[in-house]
Specification:
Strand content: under 5%
Distance between the termini: 24 Å
Order of helices and strands: HH
Structural class: mainly alpha
Number of helices: 2
Helix content: 55-70%
Number of strands: 0
Length: 79
Amino acid sequence: MAPAGEGQLNWNKAVRQLHRWLSILFTAVVAGIFLALGLGREPAPWIYYLPLAPLALMMLTGLWMFFRPYAARSPRTER
């Protein structure tokens, strides 16, 4: 039987891990675009929109990690 709160800890750990992998993906896509530009190749216009998907997900996971400590200390959870 798992201790109380362990499920929440695993959820937070998964969000942090997802945030890390999304940042790696975002960095790789942006680096690829700059590499292509540095080699003198003009990528297709839609390529410039590729970093937006991981960036949007990183914003959501980042906001989750930022506000999580404040939500844990809310008066509603202190009862």
